[in-house]
Amino acid sequence: MADCGDKDSTTEFDDDDIEEDAPLEKRKKIFSKELRCMMYGFGDDQNPYTESVDLLEDLVVDYITEMTKKAMEIGKSGRIIVEDIIFLIRKDPKKYSRVKELLLMSEELRKARKAFDEIKYATTK
């Protein structure tokens, strides 16, 4: 049974573990637990078929790989910046609005943390 509320597990991303040209069956599964939880959240069974999770993970890894390659091609300094990703998804309204929403939420959280740290710093003096 998948525990979709567990935040303690961490997944490390090692460049050596994931080979670009490795067959899909040989790739290390890094998103399985999260995908199971997402599938359950979107109406699948609490324990979806392993084959379904593996297929979805292969699709996710391929999508991330392709987007990263494209972002590296359009980037100027050999690095990926947020604007590169926004440029790539600009014609997909759903993805674009979600990225915009997440960026705004991130900015609000950053401001709230800064205000909290200022209050905490002022009270400790």
Written account of the structure:
- The termini are far apart.
- The longest helix is centred in the last third of the chain and has 32 residues, at 93-124.
- Among the domains are: 29-76, Histone, subunit A, CATH 1.10.20.10; 91-124.
- Helix content is 60%, strand content 0%.
- It is mostly helical.
- It has helices at 32-41, 50-74, 82-89, 93-124.
- Helix 1 packs across helix 2.
- Mean pLDDT is 84; it is low at 9-18.
- 3% of the residues are buried.
- The protein is extended.
Shape: extended
Structural class: mainly alpha
Please give the CATH architecture of the domain at 29-76: Orthogonal Bundle
The CATH topology of the domain at 29-76: Histone, subunit A
Largest sheet data: none
Alpha carbon gap, first and last residue: 49 Å
Q: Into which percentage range does the β-strand content fall? A: under 5%
Oligomeric form of this entry? single chain
User: What is the number of beta strands?
Assistant: 0
- Mean pLDDT across every amino acid position: 84
Proportion of residues in helical segments: 55-70%
Uncertain spans:
9-18
The top-level CATH class of the domain at 29-76 is Mainly Alpha
Q: Helical region count? A: 4
The Cα radius of gyration reads 19 Å
- The CATH homologous superfamily of the domain at 29-76 is called Histone, subunit A
Please provide the ordered H/E string of secondary-structure elements: HHHH
